[in-house]
Design goal:
The complex is a heterotrimer of chains A (401), B (307) and C (454).
Chain A: H1 8-12, E1 16-29, E2 32-45, E3 49-53, H2 60-67, E4 76-85, H3 88-93, E5 98-99, H4 105-111, E6 116-119, H5 123-126, H6 133-144, H7 146-152, H8 159-165, H9 171-176, H10 182-203, H11 209-214, H12 222-234, E7 240-244, H13 252-269, E8 272-277, H14 280-286, E9 289-294, E10 297-303, H15 304-309, H16 314-322, H17 361-365, E11 371-372, E12 378-379
Parallel strand pairs in A: 3-8, 3-9, 6-7, 7-8
Antiparallel strand pairs in A: 1-2, 1-4, 4-5, 9-10, 10-12, 11-12
Chain B: H1 17-33, H2 36-58, H3 96-132, H4 134-149, H5 152-163, H6 167-177, H7 180-194, H8 197-205, H9 209-221, H10 223-245, H11 256-267, H12 273-300
Helix pairs in contact in B: 1-12, 2-3, 2-12, 3-4, 3-6, 3-7, 3-10, 3-12, 4-7, 5-6, 6-10, 7-9, 8-9, 10-11, 10-12, 11-12
Chain C: E1 21-34, E2 39-54, E3 59-63, H1 70-77, E4 85-90, H2 94-105, H3 113-126, H4 133-142, E5 143-146, H5 160-170, H6 176-189, H7 206-218, E6 224-228, H8 236-253, E7 256-261, H9 264-270, E8 273-278, E9 281-287, H10 288-293, H11 298-306, H12 351-359, H13 362-366, E10 368-373, E11 378-383, H14 386-395, H15 403-408, E12 409-415, E13 418-423, E14 432-433, E15 439-440, H16 447-453
Parallel strand pairs in C: 3-7, 3-8, 5-6, 6-7
Antiparallel strand pairs in C: 1-2, 1-4, 8-9, 9-15, 10-11, 11-13, 12-13, 14-15
Helix pairs in contact in C: 5-6, 5-7, 6-7, 7-8
The chains are: A alpha/beta (401), B mainly alpha (307), C alpha/beta (454).
Chain lengths: 401, 307, 454
């Protein structure tokens, strides 16, 4: 939606914001290791919306959470690969990216919420029901913008108020802040943060920010909560916004508004968006590029145009044929037979081979490699691997099941 | 999740219903036992139960009433290790070992009766309140609230004191007082379970309310009650010991609380064994059931159920 | 219509002359209780006057967003909840329906004893809240439900055989080996098999559990199944399998479906006729073709516009702004007017709309002390000082106010700290047939609206 009339080639040369290379995330289970994400690679470029689409259990949420290391690491294991990230700073100065999987915890804390923000599926669960909206949103500013706020407050800011801004105060110090000389300065600090919060809320087209700030999450509707979360996520003007099915829990008319909002904010703030969804029709409407995931791997990547007008991978084709739309007749949805296989210590193979109508021997014994189909269209399927002998190679003309 | 739909599975092993149910029970048991502390608790319980079973073998049952401490006036205040009295004797010549062993029986009888009665009564009241709801729920729950406002121990104490010192009265008092929390627990669970759609589905099937209660609501509500009952098996003995310690049981009873009380006077004079060993038993009993109860709670937590 | 009969003969032959389910003015209100004594202070009007019928063999789609009342209505129809007003009939013959229409046209107090008795008789024979004995059992057997959440709709402690076989046991249709065989045949008809008999629900995937639910619903060979969002919790590929299965079963067994969903694509695929619900009332009702190709209600249009369609050209999805009215106190006129992009002055603007508009402007709102209501359409706003009152008076006259609301304002005057507003009162909007069974409740398309406009 933001790229407009750019050609695919122009799009492909925009600077990189993030590059995921051979990411592997496994989970320890009693039966073995579950290969939730099993060699995932893709890129996110400046200003674009990349859709990561797939069904339950395909690993898209785990992939997204790996960016900010939200995967719980007792059962989870970052087993390989890297996620390189270029912040605006780095891109401007031509500096090196950081590997989000390797950087120390403090650096990650600094990036989370500031350079990379995330919004989740259920807005009700993402907000603390015991805190007012004001307190929750103020958190973001105290965490990431305290220095700027302190500078804006002028030259003589008492030490105790500085500590308050950096959220370093102890209980006693907080009591001391109630005493006059310091009370006025503390109040000024709060007012400045309130203004920032109000501003952030106004950006998301909330008509009455002060009223919302005083409210508690249970007093707000689903759509309003999601707006608050978007405001919170974009408060610090992040370089990358990760949206994990943000509208699944909302009604369709509200969903459309929220998506309009995200698109508009993205354009204005020049943020890149990684949009996770299971809804193909939605992804078609709002994403520039799409990556289709199945059973822990990316099976196909390309621009929206390429994927939807010329889907290559049998899974992508099957998925599209299974979505009810105006062109379908009752009872004639092309269902994909079978179910997603177990991902525990799987052998090398194409994960889709158990359900693919064209599967042959090589599909069951070897991991497929990426094949380039066009400008930016890639697919991981032996059907398109021209280096293979035609005797061994599967074909869309030959159904084997 | 197993790919159950795959038509290629040649070996279609159809397990019978009881095989499947037993296997599920075995899985749950294995989980419970995999926790080392739970295992310890279970071992202690088995040891205690063996004591109750083997009581007539380990000691000569007292005549006429084996639950009365025998009096050996010839060997009073004998220290542990005295021949014939491994753990020593009390100030009235009662064999401490005898008290320990037969006290286990008393405790088992006590906890089984009290837990049995309280769980039953509490479940009935709580089920009526939760399942039927409405005015009945209001009345029952207000009654429960009022009863819960009275401290349990004091309440039991008052009843037992009024009825007169006897262990039977202690059992009665505890049964009257301690059912209330079960009513609360199961009512809460039932209200929660009722919201599940399988209860609606049972209504759609046209099944009678009683059957719906029996098959859908009760089995799925019973887990916290099981956990609480296990914990209470230990706790009740502790409470009863407290009551008999203050003198609400008949004198000379082979019961751990009574023994601790009787042996108290001798402690300052250095005769520690008459109170310590029975006291240790109370501790072990309560500890064992607490460990097992906690282990069961971890396993039977609804969040981990259904995996 | 094909003749359908089972060994038990609960299905009648030649079912052209009756409906399966008939709703007449169905209402379901939930009391709002407040305070220590739990006084009833209001009613949430979840379903507020819904009438339609479902004919044998068809699939009726019920679509709407959260809070529209479709789930509550589904529960009333399937007998899980009782309506607080109106009637639901099972297998109401067309002749009886015609009689009810005739009698309803006569005002309550003018009806004869004869007429009242006739209504009572029809209610006793077909009204589901009054059925008993054989009548009740027939209804109960023939009206089954498939729920949305496949996990919580199966008892986790029961084996599949017991779950699916339970209806057969309750009605004593079979036992022992015969029961087992019947269960196996039911499982096979939904794509499962004998090997699944003795397993627990948690051992299956979501799609398989939904198949088990369907098998259970089919156990008594019912005529009518209420499907409450049966595929909303499933992945796309699994959803397709289940929808295909449902269609197949319908053809094989001559089933009638009520298909409740928020997903327009699925509803379009599965339904013959569709009713769109909004805030407890039906906004539009017609065939699937009519609603999707020629919608006659702005809400239906908004739903279509907001719905991402994979087969469409890249279009802009459009959402709806504005707030949904309080279901405890809905507008007297059109309930959709607060968010309608094409609202007219005659749509039923009320005091609540003016207050809501005021709340979007902090400075104007600051001075407001109280709202003295004379009716839903007339009130006096009391401010803290004359300046605040004057500011609001001015603001209500300039272009920041939505044009239809401004035009609906019949009277606006201020007096010191008080501002008096009065909107033109409107009649409640009725569903009207605009041709061939296509009904809508939007005055832009109905004669009621045409009258208003003249």
């Amino acid at each position: 939606m933001t790229v407009g009339a750019e050609t695919i080639r122009q799009q492909a040369t925009r600077p990189l914001v993030a590059s995921v290379r051979d990411l592997r995330v496994y989970f320890e289970a009693k039966a073995g290791r579950v290969h939730a994400v099993d060699g995932v690679s893709f890129e996110i470029r400046d200003g674009e919306t990349l859709g990561l689409v797939g069904e339950t259990g395909c690993g898209k949420s785990v992939t997204a959470r790996s960016f900010i290391r939200l995967v719980p690491t007792p059962p989870g294991i970052y087993a390989g690969g890297e996620i390189d990230f270029w912040s605006t700073e780095a891109r401007r100065t031509g500096g090196d990216p950081v590997d989000l999987l390797e950087i120390p915890h403090d650096d990650m804390l600094a990036i989370r919420g500031d350079r990379i923000a995330m919004i989740f599926q259920d807005p009700g669960k993402a907000l603390n029901p015991a805190l007012s909206i004001r307190s929750q949103m103020a958190e973001v500013f105290y965490q990431h913008r305290s220095e700027e706020i302190l500078m804006a407050m002028g030259p003589d800011v008492p030490w105790i108020v500085r500590r308050a801004a950096r959220q370093q105060t102890t209980g006693i110090e907080r009591m001391l802040l109630k005493i006059p000389p310091w009370r006025a300065k503390a109040a000024q600090l709060r007012r400045m943060v309130d203004d920032l919060v109000s501003q952030a809320l106004t950006e998301t087209q909330i008509a009455n920010p002060r009223k919302i700030m005083d409210s508690y999450p249970h007093e707000l509707s689903g759509g309003m909560k999601q707006r608050v979360l978007i405001a919170q996520a974009l408060a610090c003007n992040p370089d990358l916004l990760i949206a994990d099915e943000p509208t699944t829990a909302l009604d369709v008319t509200i969903q459309a508004r929220i998506l309009e909002l995200i698109a508009e904010l993205q354009e204005r703030l020049e943020t890149s968006v990684l949009y996770i969804s299971h809804d193909l029709s939605l992804v078609k409407e709002i994403c520039d590029r799409v990556a289709v995931m199945y059973a822990g791997r990316i099976v196909e990547t390309g621009t929206t145009e390429e994927i939807f007008s010329n889907p290559a991978h049998p899974y992508t084709r099957g998925l599209m044929a299974a979505v009810p739309s105006a062109t379908h007749k009752r009872g004639k949805l092309a269902a994909i037979e079978g179910t997603v296989p177990e991902l525990i210590d799987p052998p090398p193979s194409c994960r889709f081979n158990t359900r693919c109508p064209y599967a042959v021997d090589i599909c069951r014994t070897t991991d497929p490699t990426d094949v380039d189909l066009g400008e930016s269209h890639r697919v991981a399927c032996f059907i398109y691997d021209t280096s293979l002998d035609s005797a061994v190679r599967p074909s869309r003309e030959r159904r084997t099941s | 999740m197993v790919d159950v739909l795959a038509p290629e599975t040649a070996t279609v092993r159809v397990d019978g219903p009881w095989t499947v149910r037993l296997r599920r029970l075995a899985d749950v048991s294995k989980q419970v036992l995999s926790n080392p502390t739970t295992l310890v608790g279970l071992v202690i319980i088995i040891a205690l139960l063996s004591l109750t079973v083997l009581a007539p073998v380990l000691t000569e049952p007292n005549f006429p009433n084996p639950y009365q401490m025998p009096r050996d006036w010839g060997a009073r205040d004998a220290p542990p290790g005295t021949p014939g009295h491994i753990l020593g004797t009390t100030s009235t010549g009662g064999d401490v070992f005898y008290g320990v062993v037969w006290g286990a029986r008393t405790s088992l009888r006590l906890s089984l009766i009290v837990v049995g009665v309280t769980v039953t009564v509490g479940t009935i009241v709580g089920s009526l309140a939760g399942f039927i709801g409405g005015k009945l729920d209001e009345i029952l729950m207000r009654t429960v609230d009022i009863l819960l406002a009275i401290p349990e121990l004091i309440f039991a104490l008052a009843i037992a004191a009024v009825l007169g010192p006897s262990f039977g009265n202690i059992i009665f008092a505890l049964s009257v007082v301690f059912w209330v929390k079960y009513a609360r627990i199961i009512r809460g669970q039932i209200i929660h379970v009722k919201q599940n759609e399988y209860v609606d589905a049972a209504r759609i099937t046209g099944d009678s309310k009683l059957n719906i209660y029996r098959r859908d609501v009760l089995p799925n509500s019973v887990t916290p009650v099981i956990v609480q009952a296990t914990l209470d098996m230990g706790g009740i003995v502790l409470t009863a010991a407290t009551l008999s310690f203050i003198g609400l049981a008949e004198a000379g009873l082979a019961e751990w609380g009574v023994l601790v009380s009787d042996g108290q006077a001798g402690i300052s004079a250095g005769k520690w064994w008459a109170s310590t060993f029975p006291g240790l038993m109370v501790f072990l009993w309560a500890l064992a059931f607490n460990l097992v109860g906690d282990g069961m709670r971890d396993v039977l937590d609804p969040r981990t159920e259904g995996r | 219509m094909t003749t359908m009969s089972t060994e038990r003969g609960t299905r009648q032959k030649s079912t052209d002359d009756r409906a399966v389910i008939t709703l007449r003015g169905v209402e379901k209100y939930f009391p709002i209780k407040e305070g220590a004594l739990q006084r009833v202070v209001g009613q949430v009007r979840a379903v507020d006057g819904v009438s339609f019928e479902v004919r044998p063999g068809e699939t009726m789609g019920l679509v709407g967003e959260s809070g529209c009342g479709k789930t509550t209505l589904g529960r009333c129809i399937s007998g899980l909840a009782s309506p607080t007003g109106g009637k639901i009939y099972f297998r109401l013959p067309d002749a009886a329906a015609a009689r009810l229409d005739e009698i309803d046209a006569v005002p309550e107090n003018e009806r004869t004893q004869e007429q009242r008795k006739e209504v009572a008789r029809i209610d006793a024979e077909h009204g589901i809240t009054q059925l008993s004995g054989v009548g009740w059992r027939t209804y109960r057997r023939n009206c089954q439900v498939v729920f949305q959440d496949s996990f919580s709709s199966l008892n986790p402690r029961q084996l599949v055989k017991d779950i699916v076989g339970r209806p057969l046991r309750v009605y004593r249709e079979a036992s022992g080996q015969e029961l087992t065989e019947k269960v196996v045949s039911l499982l096979e008809s939904v794509g499962l098999g004998r090997q699944h008999l003795y397993r627990y629900p948690h051992q299956f995937s979501g799609g398989q559990r939904q198949r088990i639910s369907i098998a259970r619903a089919l156990a008594l060979d019912p005529e009518f199944i209420v499907l409450d969002e049966p595929t909303s919790a499933l992945d796309v590929s699994v959803q397709a399998q289940i929808l295909n299965l449902l269609h197949e079963l319908q053809s094989e067994r001559g089933l009638t479906y009520l298909f409740i969903s928020h997903d327009l694509g699925v509803v379009r695929l599965m339904s013959d006729r569709i009713a769109v619900m909004y805030l407890g009332k039906v906004a539009e009702h017609g065939t699937a073709h009519e609603l999707f190709e020629d919608p006659r209600h702005p809400y239906t249009e908004a739903l279509l516009a907001a719905n991402p369609d994979i087969s469409a050209e890249a279009s802009e999805m459009k959402g709806l702004s504005g707030t949904v009215p309080d279901p405890a106190n809905p507008p007297e006129g059109c309930r959709f007017h607060t968010r309608c992009p094409v609202a007219t002055p005659a749509c039923g603007w009320e005091v609540d709309d003016a207050v809501a508009w005021l709340q979007t402007n902090e400075t104007l709102l600051a001075g407001l002390l109280d709202v003295e209501r004379r009716s839903n359409f007339e009130a006096t706003l009391v401010f803290s000082d004359a300046a605040a009152a004057g500011a609001v008076d001015d603001a209500l006259q300039n272009a920041n106010v939505p044009a239809p609301m401004m035009n609906a304002l019949a009277d606006l005057s201020s007096d010191g700290t008080r501002v008096h507003i009065r909107f033109t009162a409107v009649e409640p909007v009725a569903l009207e047939d605009i041709g061939g069974g296509h009904l809508t409740a939007c005055i832009l398309h109905t004669s009621q609206g045409r009258d208003n406009r003249e």
